[in-house]
Amino acid sequence: MGLVNTPPLSAQDDAALLALVKRGDEQAMATLFDRYSKVVYSVALRVLRDPASAEDILQEVFMQVWRSPDGFVATRGSLGGWLAVVARNRSIDALRRKKPMDQVEDMALAAPFNLANEAERNNMMERARGIIIKLPVEQRKTLEMAFFDGLTHSEIAEMTGDPLGTVKTRIRSALTTLRKAFQA
């Protein structure tokens, strides 16, 4: 799946899609699945450590959304975070069914951190990647050299042969584009 065609994520989009799902719109459901299935699957896989069981949880979670789109309350958080929590809870339930003699509280789960926050962070990272990939090539390359390669502005100017002012302008323009996209 490419990030170039990924639309920016927003709570408003999710609410609109859920409203369409409520009316039985299969395309809206497919869009939600495309948007959040990786998060749901990865949470289930972390808890269950079994790809087949994680796929079952993925299916259960999205069937729940299809049958009861009103189950999500937007004022309590993001849809992605809610789906991650639902996937985690269903995965723990699946563990309980598999090992009824073991106490779930005694099991070491692979994700000791807040799954909802992790899912939200992953969504933000995907959104940032989608924005960065759409930047003009010069801006993207300069931004990547500064933030991912750890080069100073002067080092970038020396490596690319561009004037230092041009390097600074490209980075500032790229950051402005990112900021505007996140505020939209």
List the helices and strands and how they pair.
Blueprint: H1 11-22, H2 26-48, H3 51-67, H4 79-98, H5 115-133, H6 137-147, H7 153-160, H8 164-183
Helix pairs in contact: 1-2, 2-3, 2-4, 3-4, 4-5, 5-8, 6-8, 7-8
Provide the helix percentage.
over 70%
- The coarse silhouette is elongated
Order of helices and strands: HHHHHHHH
What integer is the average pLDDT? 84
Model regions low in confidence, pLDDT < 50 over at least 5 residues: 1-8
Radius of gyration equals 21 Å
Q: Hey, roughly how much beta strand do the residues contain?
A: under 5%
Largest sheet: none
Find the count of extended strands (DSSP E, 2+ residues).
0
* Structural class by helix and strand composition: mainly alpha
Task: Supply the number of helical segments.
Answer: 8
Instruction: Calculate the terminal CA-CA distance, rounded to whole Å.
Output: 24 Å
